[in-house]
Amino acid sequence: MGYRENPRPGGRSARVQAAVHQSVRDMLATMDRADVTIPLIAQRANVTPSTIYRRWGDLQALLADVAASHLRPEGEPASIGSAREDLAAWVEQYADEMASGLGRQMLRDVLAAADSANAEKCGTYMRCQLSVFIARAEACGEPFPTLTELMDHVISPIIYRILFDQAPDSDYVRGLVTKVMPESTART
Amino acid sequence: MGYRENPRPGGRSARVQAAVHQSVRDMLATMDRADVTIPLIAQRANVTPSTIYRRWGDLQALLADVAASHLRPEGEPASIGSAREDLAAWVEQYADEMASGLGRQMLRDVLAAADSANAEKCGTYMRCQLSVFIARAEACGEPFPTLTELMDHVISPIIYRILFDQAPDSDYVRGLVTKVMPESTART
DNA sequence: TCCACTAACGCAAATTATTTGCTTTTATAC
DNA sequence: GTATAAAAGCAAATAATTTGCGTTAGTGGA
């Protein structure tokens, strides 16, 4: 009677989910958000509206689901130089992506849903990614901030500005990373 | 043909706005958010649904408007002791309020709206309030963080946690304030 | 004071979205 | 294979949203 969180891959349920997600992504990329409705999404995905209503509940929940799955990291962040440099590059790209129109909308969709599960998922994704840098630094004996320091003093200010203020620029983001580094490993 | 942002006080338009806002606040306080609909709000406010649709557009916009107006500071923060102590007390209360179910919902409502105007308003309110503490400290010659430091290292982490993680507790909030103070004015 | 003007409201019909009961399909386990 | 149950389809019923048009109530000028 209930819908499973993660449908078995290859099954009908998984195909429907993929089709609906794809349909949503296409529509968000090409049309005005106000025109994205469940009946339209259903039509594009070759699915009945009631299927979507029963599975996701409402448009906000569906958009939050799509946004969260897009926000899930696809792989390990690149390892080019020191952990500090890798982190700086990764954070800068992340900030750019989130500050863009689409990124901003994804953040909003994730937050707008009645259920906070998707928002918490995003927080978890973020901590996982940052942990990779911390582990690398530790492996090299490179001094590095803690996870809490990174979340509080780098990620939080970036997200806050995107949500409540103007998008942060690159200089600002680099400054945050520099300031959080221990023992003034600073450069630039 | 357009609706004015700030209706003249005492006019019919202002009365309708007040009635609708009141109706929304009552409903949010007493019933499940999923049951709060525009037709219901209209009925309680003795107004036609079409009036609300024409004026606000949709439910999200109306909720964002109500939330933002509730988030507007009502007066200067209390001045009991040093600027540092006043700030700590004020921030702690702010964090508590935002972390509560209703506070959290207000943040979400403000962010969920298609128009980011209300979210930016909230950012502005916050900077105004913090500026008061900064001005007081300066008047007393008390060393104090800058506005940017307060926004980035105190407010942002609190809001981020509320939105994407678990609600921050008092100890954590006090720690943020302590850490941002210059020259280790720290105590407890 | 009265009149013209217009923003904002009310009403109701038309449209569109959402819910729901019931049936059918399709993976999965036996 | 067959039984089972989750999930999809279909269609009728309900609820929300949009819209055209007439009415009301503040505003400003004679």
From TrEMBL, chains A, B:
Keyword DNA-binding attributed: yes
Keyword set, alphabetical order: DNA-binding, Transcription, Transcription regulation
Source domain of life: Bacteria
PROSITE patterns: HTH_TETR_2
Short name of any one Pfam family annotated for the protein: TetR_C_11
Residue intervals of the HTH tetR-type domain: 14-74
Residues annotated to bind DNA: 37-56
Protein name: AcrR family transcriptional regulator
Organism: Rhizobium miluonense
